[in-house]
Amino acid sequence: MVTIDFDIFPTRETAPADQRDAILADPGFGAHFTDHMVTMRWSEEAGWHDARLEAYGSFTLDPATSVFHYGQELFEGMKAYRQDSGATVLFRPEVNAARFNSSARRMAMPEIPEDVFVRAIELLVSEDRDWVPTTPGTSLYLRPFMIATQRGLGFSKPSTDYLFCVIASPAAAYFGGGEKPRALTVWLSEHYSRAAPGGTGFVKVGGNYGGALAASREALEKGCDQVVWLDAVEHTWVEEMGGMNLFFVHTPPGGCPRIMTPELTGTLLPGVTRDSLLKLAPTLGIEAGEGRISTAEWREQCAAGELTEAFACGTAAVMAPVGRVRGVSGGWTMGDGEPGPVTMRLREELLGIQYGRLPDPFGWIRKVC
Ligand code: COI
């Protein structure tokens, strides 16, 4: 087992309490950052070294640093929650650690031992615990990431040097609107593709997101909130929404509801919230499984009243109900277009576990301080 000790350099220049409280009262998403960050470097000769917690601040990087040119980078998204008991907790951080390493393998970057990854997160959360907001539905969003730092424009092999960093940002509801989510209108992207077989769709790398922005802009121009991605080969099968996974709810008259999410074909991101909902739903009498659905089936099943709800899920937004779909050949509505009961039931249960209002039967919660 690798032992890595983090050197701790707390800053004396923390934000004044009144300034911090004003931010925590209305944090938005990803706009404000805490007093500290964690960094760690990797080189071919030394492996992981120079692990430290230090003041949040800028990096100085040579303009020829490889990440700027070839996008060799990856990131994660996770949250710390302040529970009613006063405890500050993480949700399944080891799953983020495993996915970080899966992304690292695909991007030919060095892996980080899972316990070191989790320790880095815990150190930052613990040092900046006063930055965890306490109003309902808020959290401290954590953004671990890694970039290639070798200087040079050669492209014959992966970088010889890397920087790992974790930053933290107090966060309110991702789509605004306070604790109660509003139903989104989504745009079917029939022209652009997010990920192709053999590509990087199953890992969390910046290129997947940068390449999505033209389609996101198109969705906004069409008056929609988010883009829905179809498979890149047939442009038929529904894959994801924006940077989130999708679920469909079928409710037979008088029967038990069933949730279905597109299977992980290699082009979809294996979301932590996606996995948690697949495990949680059956404990609530909701059948859950993976499958596939075409845009035509989505439309027909809504018209037949079989597909009653749809929602997207991800760490940042938790669960976002989808009310309406639009595309070049028209649009349709899920149920009455409002957040549905199955979506809201699952959301309440998941948030209940995260905020400590409900028992944690799966052992997903890890107390930090
Ligand atoms: C997350 O849900 O954590 C994400 O990575 C989405 C991000 C693009 C805000």
Return the CATH architecture of the largest domain.
Alpha-Beta Barrel
Gap between N and C termini: 25 Å
Low-confidence stretches: none
Task: Please tell me the overall pLDDT.
Answer: 96
Based on secondary structure, the structural category is alpha+beta
Q: What is the H/E string?
A: EHEEHEEEHHEEEHHEEEEHEHEEEHE
Quickly count the domains.
2
Please describe the topology of this protein.
Blueprint: E1 7-8, H1 17-25, E2 36-43, E3 47-55, H2 66-70, E4 73-75, E5 78-82, E6 88-91, H3 93-106, H4 114-127, E7 139-148, E8 161-171, E9 184-189, H5 206-210, H6 213-221, E10 226-230, E11 238-241, E12 244-250, E13 258-262, H7 272-280, E14 287-291, H8 295-303, E15 307-314, E16 318-327, E17 330-333, H9 341-354, E18 365-367
Parallel strand pairs: 1-3, 9-10, 9-16, 13-14
Antiparallel strand pairs: 2-3, 2-8, 4-7, 5-6, 5-7, 6-18, 7-8, 10-11, 11-12, 12-13, 12-15, 15-16, 16-17
Bound molecules: 2-OXO-4-methylpentanoic acid.
Q: Mind explaining what this structure looks like?
A:
There is one protein chain. This protein has 369 residues and is α+β, with helices and mostly antiparallel strands. It has nine helices and 18 strands. Strands 1, 2, 3, 4, 5, 6, 7, 8 and 18 form a nine-stranded mixed sheet that branches. It has a six-stranded mixed β-barrel with strand order 9-10-11-12-15-16, surrounded by four helices. Helix 3 crosses helix 4. The relative contact order is 0.14. The site of 2-OXO-4-methylpentanoic acid (COI) has 6 residues, from loops.
